[in-house]
Design goal:
It comes from Hordeum vulgare subsp. vulgare. It is built from 21 helices and two strands. The protein is an all-alpha fold. Strands 1-2 form a two-stranded antiparallel ribbon.
C-alpha cells in the first residue's frame, strides 16, 4: 500500500468509524455470506451427546483441579461449595442466553457473532477479543496445573520439580514449564486433524474422568470427617463476602460451556442439540463441582489444603491413603487434558469467525478443505497459549482471569434482551437501551454497597429493590410489543432470566481483584487501538471492494443480456 493511501485512510478514520462501528449483520448473512469467506465449510459430524461431552469435559478439569484448593484455603473456606452454587446459577442463566442465540445464529463465533448481529461490529469485536484472551490465559493456567498433577502421579511432591528455573528471568516467569508446552502442542496437532476424532477422544477421556470423580467423591466422604467442615473457624471463616469473592474466582471453571456454542456449525441438528448440550452440561458440572469441593474439605481442615495439586495432597497426607494420591493425580491429569482439548477447540473457532469478519488477517479464517478444521487459527492460538504456559506462574494468571468471561456473558445477556424486544419485537430501541442502562447502574450500586461495611448496608436493599422494580416495569410495559416466539427453543420467562444474568455478572465482576481490572483496562485499550488502526479500515475497504465488484458484475450481466 502506497504512503498516500495510508495517509488517506488515516484521514478518513472518523468517517469509517461512523460507517462501520455500529453496523450489524443479519443471522442469514452470518450463516451464508460471512461463513463462505472461510472457503471450505466445517463438517457437520457432531450429535447432541458430543456437545454434552464437550461441555462436561471442557469444564471439569479446569474447575475442580485448578481453583478449588486455592479458593477453599484463601478465600471461602469450607463454604467453597457455596461459591460454586452462586457461580453455577450465574453460569446457568448465561447458558440460557447462549443457547437461544446459538439456535438463532448457529455459527462458530459464539459471543462475537451474537454481539455483532445485535450491537454492531465494534461491540462484537470487543467482547470476542476479551473472551479470546481469557481462553488463552486460562488454557495456559490449566496446562501448568497438568504438570503439577502429573508429577504428583509419579510421587513427586515438589511443585517445580519438573520445571526448569532460570535465574536470569524475573521471578514469577522464570519456572519454565516444558511438559505444559508439549501437551499444548500435542493437542494442537490433534485439533488440526479432525473435530469428530477430537470429540471422540474427549468422550473417552471424560468417561474415565467421571470414574475418577466418583472415586474421589466416595473415597473423600468415606475417609473424611464432617468435623473438618467446621474446623478450625466454622463453615464460612471468611463470611459471606468470602463466599461471593470465591464465586468470582471459581467462575473461571465454567469457561468450557461456551465452547459448546462455538461448535454450532459442526452439529447436525443445532435447534435440538444446542440447548441440551449447553444448559445440560452446566447442570451436570455444577453438581459435580459441589460434591468434589465438599469431599476435599471433609478430608482435612481448609487451613491444611495444599496450594499445588490439593486433591492428591489431601489423599497423600491421610494415613493409609497415600496410594490414592497417584490415582487422583492420574485422574486429574486426564481431566485436565480433556478440559484443555475442548477449550482449545473453542478458542480457535472464535478467532476463525473474527477473521471472517475481516477484523483480523483473513488467513486466520481459512478452513482446511480435507480436515474441515480452522487449522491456521488453531496453530496460531496454540503457539500463543504455549508461550504463556512456558513462562507464567499460576498465581499470576489466576489474578488476571474471569473478568473477560464475565464481561462477555454480561454483554450476551444484554444482547438477548435487546434482540428479543427491539430487533425481533416492536419495542422502541431507546426504551430497551434505557432499561439496560438502569439495570446495569442498579446492579453496580448494589455491588459497590456490599463492599462498604456498616452504614451502607441499606444501600444493598435500596439498589436490589430498584433492580427488581426496573425489571418488573419493563416486563409489564414491553412484553406486549414483543413478537410471538419462534418455533426454535427460546429462554422462558423473559426478561427475568437474562436480567438476573446481567445482575449476577456485574456483581461477580466487582468482587475481582484490582489486577484483573488493570489487565482488562490494558487489553481493552489494545483492542480499541487495533480496531481503530486495522479492523475498521480492513472491513471498510472490503465493503467498498464488494460494492465495486457487484457493480461490475451487474454491468457485465446487462451487456450480456
Amino acid at each position: 500500500m502506497a504512503l498516500r493511501d495510508v495517509l488517506l485512510s488515516v484521514a478518513q478514520t472518523p468517517h469509517r468509524l461512523r460507517r462501520r462501528a455500529l453496523v450489524t449483520w443479519t443471522p442469514a448473512q452470518e450463516l451464508n455470506e460471512v461463513r463462505d469467506r472461510s472457503g471450505a465449510r466445517m463438517a457437520r459430524r457432531l450429535e447432541w451427546y458430543d456437545l454434552v461431552g464437550l461441555g462436561v469435559g471442557g469444564m471439569l478439569g479446569a474447575g475442580v483441579f485448578v481453583t478449588t484448593g486455592r479458593v477453599a484455603r484463601d478465600t471461602a473456606g469450607p463454604a467453597v461449595f457455596a461459591s460454586y452454587v452462586v457461580a453455577g446459577v450465574s453460569a446457568l442463566l448465561s447458558s440460557f442466553c447462549y443457547a437461544e442465540f446459538a439456535v438463532r445464529v448457529p455459527v462458530a463465533g459464539g459471543a462475537f457473532s451474537y454481539l455483532r448481529v445485535t450491537f454492531g461490529e465494534f461491540v462484537g469485536f470487543f467482547g470476542g477479543a476479551n473472551i479470546l484472551m481469557e481462553y488463552v490465559l486460562s488454557n495456559a493456567a490449566v496446562a501448568r496445573s497438568f504438570t503439577d498433577y502429573l508429577a504428583s502421579t509419579c510421587g513427586v511432591t515438589e511443585p517445580n520439580a519438573w520445571r526448569v528455573e532460570v535465574e536470569a528471568i524475573a521471578k514469577g516467569y522464570n519456572a519454565l514449564d516444558f511438559p505444559a508446552v508439549a501437551l499444548i502442542l500435542l493437542l494442537t496437532a490433534c485439533l488440526c486433524y479432525s473435530t469428530k476424532e477430537s470429540s471422540t477422544l474427549n468422550m473417552v477421556l471424560t468417561a474415565f474422568h467421571l470414574l475418577f470423580f466418583a472415586f474421589i467423591i466416595v473415597a473423600g466422604f468415606w475417609n473424611g470427617s464432617a468435623r473438618n467442615m467446621v474446623t478450625p473457624d466454622g463453615l464460612a471463616p471468611y463470611g459471606v463476602r468470602g463466599v461471593l469473592d470465591g464465586a468470582a474466582v471459581v467462575y473461571f471453571s465454567y469457561i468450557g460451556y461456551d465452547s459448546a456454542s462455538t461448535m454450532a456449525e459442526e452439529i447436525r441438528d443445532p435447534a435440538r442439540a444446542l440447548p441440551v448440550g449447553i444448559a445440560g452440561s452446566v447442570l451436570i458440572v455444577s453438581a459435580l463441582y459441589c460434591l468434589m469441593s465438599v469431599a476435599l474439605c471433609v478430608m482435612l481442615p481448609y487451613t491444611d489444603i495444599a496450594e499445588s495439586a490439593p486433591f492428591s495432597s489431601a489423599f497423600r497426607d491421610k494415613a493409609g491413603w497415600r496410594w490414592a494420591s497417584s490415582v487422583v493425580g492420574a485422574g486429574a491429569s486426564i481431566g485436565i487434558v480433556a478440559s484443555l482439548l475442548v477449550a482449545m477447540l473453542g478458542q480457535a473457532r472464535y478467532l476463525c469467525v473474527i477473521a471472517r469478519a475481516r477484523l483480523v488477517p483473513a488467513w486466520l479464517a481459512k478452513v482446511h478443505p480435507s480436515t474441515g478444521t480452522p487449522m491456521n487459527a488453531t496453530i496460531f492460538l496454540g503457539l500463543c497459549t504455549a508461550s504463556i504456559a512456558l513462562f507464567t506462574e499460576l498465581q499470576i494468571v489466576f489474578e488476571m482471569i474471569s473478568i473477560g468471561t464475565l464481561l462477555a456473558f454480561y454483554l450476551v445477556a444484554n444482547a438477548l434482551i435487546y434482540h428479543r424486544y427491539a430487533k425481533v419485537g416492536a419495542t422502541r430501541p431507546l426504551h430497551v437501551l434505557l432499561f439496560l442502562l438502569l439495570l446495569t447502574l442498579s446492579s453496580v450500586g448494589f455491588s459497590l454497597a456490599r463492599r462498604i461495611d456498616g452504614k451502607w448496608r441499606w444501600g444493598m436493599a435500596l439498589f436490589g429493590a430498584t433492580s427488581v422494580v426496573v425489571v418488573a416495569i419493563f416486563h409489564c410495559t414491553a412484553r406486549q410489543g414483543v413478537a410471538g416466539p419462534p418455533s426454535e427453543w427460546t429462554v422462558p420467562m423473559m426478561p427475568w432470566p437474562a436480567a438476573a444474568s446481567v445482575f449476577l455478572n456485574v456483581f461477580l465482576m466487582t468482587t475481582l481483584k484490582v489486577r484483573s481490572f488493570q489487565r482488562f483496562g490494558i487489553w481493552s485499550l489494545v483492542i480499541t487501538i487495533f480496531y481503530v488502526c486495522y479492523g475498521v479500515h480492513s472491513t471498510y475497504t472490503a465493503e467498498e471492494n464488494e460494492i465495486v465488484n457487484a457493480m461490475i458484475h451487474d454491468g457485465n450481466a446487462d451487456i450480456l443480456s
